Amino acid sequence: MTSKPEPLSFESDVLQTFIFEQSQIRGEIVRLGASWQTILSRKQYPPAIQRHLGEMVAAGALLSATLKFSGTLIIQAQGTGLVRLLVVECTADLGLRATIKLANDVTPETISSEASLAELINPDGLGKLVITLDPSNRQEGQQAYQGIVPLSLHGQPITSIAQAIITYMNYSEQLDTKIWLACNHQFAGGILLQKLPQLGGHSPLQKLTEEELDEAWERLPMLVQTVKDAELLSTPPNVLMNRLFTYETDQQTVRSFPLRHLQFSCQCSRKRVGNMLIMLGYDEVTDILEEQQQVETTCDFCGQVYAFDAVDCKQLFIARNLIDGMRPAKGKH
After folding, report:
1. H or E stretch including 193?
2. Fold of domain 270-319
3. I need a labelling partner for 19 at 20 to 30 A (CA). Which of 212, 241, 246, 264 fits?
4. What's the DSSP call for residue 181?
5. What dihedral angle (degrees, nearest 10) is formed by the CA atoms of 281, 283, 288, 290?
């Protein structure tokens, strides 16, 4: 019998950012403990789904940390397999949440523990990876930025979340990116290296030649590839950074930034559910109430249940003057 992992503290969820200044290669290492366990506690995830979802959660943290952006990064893997949707959201302050949607009539027990990403979500080759940047201050009518890439490459299905993210970054963002992801029942983690555009102007640092830049971009990933999954998941990111790149400090300046903390954070609220009911319309909500006596919805991310009875629903629409006859006549006070 597998023992239940010990609860982890806030300190278990950290992200280390660093940059190799002469070569302008940015790096990040993330390890998620308490936030990942919170996600796992919300639903029953089969091992195969747990593995891919955990890797996507780590990828969401890594990508969100690269952005100078106030809002939410949303990663979705969509397809027609046993799993219709994997979704991860990460806010600018590194609040994480994640969930899945299974196909109709599919239960967790029916999914093989060895199922590949292609088998789970992309059996027909038509699956896609969607990354959305949703600004926190988005104005009415303003569209969120969205990039989409197929979950296939050169006619072959993409086999891992890491490969899907690399494909997206290379094609949509046109940034050379390499990413390594891992997870188990207790931790999720990842390492990202990104080749930034070379900046012009004067710098007190000695610049590298094109040949040296290419050599650095070849050498640094080779160092990361020496890291085993167990090491990535058990080592604090700042310790792992120092362990990996101690030799590199003799070659070029490695500048590290303060550790950033991550946490599970769900943005659901009764107000948001109320707004959703208003969008459904008074007549449709009334029909639901006649059948069920109350409108009840459960957050897919955190499991919070929100219930609205007839009085609650009527108050929602009265507050918005959206019930026929409730809107004040023009010219009358």
Report:
1. strand 188-195
2. CBS domain Like (3.90.1280)
3. 264
4. E
5. 150
